[in-house]
Amino acid sequence: xxxxxxxxxxxxxxxxxxxxxxxxxxxxxxxxxxxxxxxxxxxxxxxxxxxxxxxxxxxxxxxxxxxxxxxxxxxxxxxxxxxxxxxxxxxxxxxxxxxxxxxxxxxxxxxxxxxxxxxxxx
Length: 122
Hints:
This protein has 122 residues and is mainly alpha-helical. The protein is 52% helix and 7% strand. It has two domains: 4-73; 86-121, no CATH class.
């Protein structure tokens, strides 16, 4: 069943992309990428497969030129954020083991002794 909703004259489909839509989008992308602007490319793909420009643009942005699979930049290696250095992890573990000043500081999440802005000014 094809569920559609009209908002301001734009028909928005609520179903997942079919394999045929993905294959068509990839084929058009491979043929025209670098020859026309990204906006024109997404508009061309949207018109051909019957999707909105926004859905094609978002899908390209999230999944890359294959329009499927894992999200682009979803892994730590791809995003540039990896595992923190061992020194940082050791420092965090050391701070975690420090005792709180009192029960209130433990409950309220106050900094451990020596790590507050006031302690550093002294």
